[in-house]
Amino acid sequence: MGDISARQTTNQRLDSWKEIAAFLGRDERTVRRWEKERGLPVYRVPGGKGRIYSYTDELTTWLAGPQNSGVISPSSDTDAQPEAGRTGARLTVIDGRNLDGRGPDNCSAIAIEDPSFADPCSAEPSLRHTAAHPRWRTAVLVMAPIFAVAILTLATLYRSPGLDSIAVLPFTNAGGDANTDYLSDGITESLIDSLAHVPELRVRSRSSVFRYKGKDVDVQKMGNDLGVSALVSGRVVPRGDTIEVSAELTDVRDNTVIWGQHYSIKSSEIISLQQRMAGDIADKLRSKLSLAEKQQVTRQGTQNPDAYDLYLKGRYAWNKRTRPDLETAISYLNEAIAKDPSYALAYSVLADAYSVLPNYAASPSENFPKSNAAARKALELDPTLAHPHAVLGVNETQYDWDFAGGEAEFKKALELDPSDASAHQWYAESLDRIGGRQQEALAEINRARQLDPQSPVITRELGGILTTAGQYDQAIAICQKLVADDPTFEIAHDCLAKAYWAKHMYPQVVEEFKIEGRLSGIPEEVGFADALDQGFRSAGWKGALTKAIAYREAQRIKAGDYFSAEEIAVMYADLGDKDQAFRWLNIAYQEHDWLLIGLKTFIPFAPLRSDPRFAELAHKIGLPD
Hints:
Layout: H1 2-10, E1 13-14, H2 17-24, H3 28-38, E2 43-44, E3 52-55, H4 56-63, H5 134-159, E4 165-168, E5 172-173, H6 181-195, E6 202-203, H7 206-209, H8 219-226, E7 230-239, E8 242-251, E9 256-266, H9 270-285, H10 291-298, H11 305-318, H12 323-339, H13 344-356, H14 364-381, H15 387-398, H16 403-416, H17 421-434, H18 438-451, H19 456-468, H20 472-485, H21 490-502, H22 506-520, H23 523-557, H24 565-575, H25 578-590, H26 612-621
Parallel strand pairs: 4-6, 4-7, 5-7
Antiparallel strand pairs: 1-3, 2-3, 7-8, 8-9
Helix pairs in contact: 2-3, 6-9, 6-11, 11-12, 11-13, 12-13, 13-14, 13-15, 14-15, 15-16, 15-17, 16-17, 17-18, 17-19, 18-19, 19-20, 19-21, 20-21, 21-22, 22-23, 23-24, 24-25, 25-26
């Protein structure tokens, strides 16, 4: 990691045309022209309304480039003369150093810049005194108290920013190659995971921040929307076997950049980069971290760069949440594990991937046991991990129907990491579906929202819990707001469809299922919505159910496809055909259908609950009375 260390001690960020011009010894008009004509390395802050920045290392390298040979020098460029009327002094202190990289000693902590005046930190002692220049002596005496206050203010900010919440915005892939998106996303997610270990710091989840990916939104507005006091943003530029990463930490309260750094590494050093970035940001947030706390923040799951690269690709595919992408994720994660069999985090994400596959027409009996095995292997390798316990909580509740065991896993996850918003969400979802504990479910989902108030997934789950509790209008209002914020958020439309169904608002039910089908990109879901729509147009809601049932039953016959028998039973129950409803519920029981835990709470099953067969099935599943 020699390259990174070198950058840390010499490289500085310049945050205006004026600072860049001063560093190069030219006026602003010249450096602006150099950017356009000669490729001067200058960057724009996303959403920064014209704010620019550059790095001294890159400027130095650019100056030495062949394009500037014999061209850029004070004697060869007429624009090198100082701007008319440029007088006075300017404080140039960045992160405790002035722009030439010298430390904050008596000489270099303040750099008084004027082309007519010699460097105050020159090696010649005689040039350091202002006695021979009465006008400068007066200016210095007048400005010194102001400089002192400014330095003390900056030092206070850097020592103790008082930041209690943070969001890591999706790093920009500035290389222009979509195939390296996994790298910028992976760096973002790894920083989120690492900073979550900083004491007394709330870190927004991936689902909260990734809705801003690719959007040019004002930084301060994003911070206010996310309800945080600080933002981390950055850009990644892969170049062959090297990676350039720029990152900055912004205090949202006054929109000031309190830290910025540029890293240049070999691709094989990506793990060390992650450790260094997390440590650097943590140092700015909490200057007095203990050694154990610092180690927890900078800890990475593997030291094998190939395994880490495969892990990032696996997480990237997993986050796309389609069946082909989930299967791709599983393949990458298994390759990562083959490279490093002790890679606990790879097993943890593998457990996630297998656990959600049944949502995408994959067999529960094949995938839940694989998920359990991966989660338990992750905990065997690293007992401090909280997330695999939460995955086991979901699996044992929904598939194994071990409700006491599942609850114990959720409690273990929250004991290890009380601030895991997803664990609170999943626990709430399980309590809600089982039934009888709706108040506890509401308390858990509200805790999840307190921890991550902008997460659309958590908010959608609140809508589902309110529907179960019979608060349909509130559920509809919440999920309508989600759709207004992001019309492409697929599961918000599912939330609306279920709430409208409970209120017998059937035209709206059909419309929401149609939108959800289109957004899913899954042909079978589009076909189901079309069948529902055609049946509704010809024979109302009963016609819609009849047509949709026929479509789902035909899908079940197809080789290689799995579709929930419970979903067919729901439609038969709402249609009033109890015998067919129980026939399909018994098939669901034989298949260990994970949706059966909602037998007592899914609203269309209400007509079945007085039938003795219902109580018998609930008892066989083990649902609490």
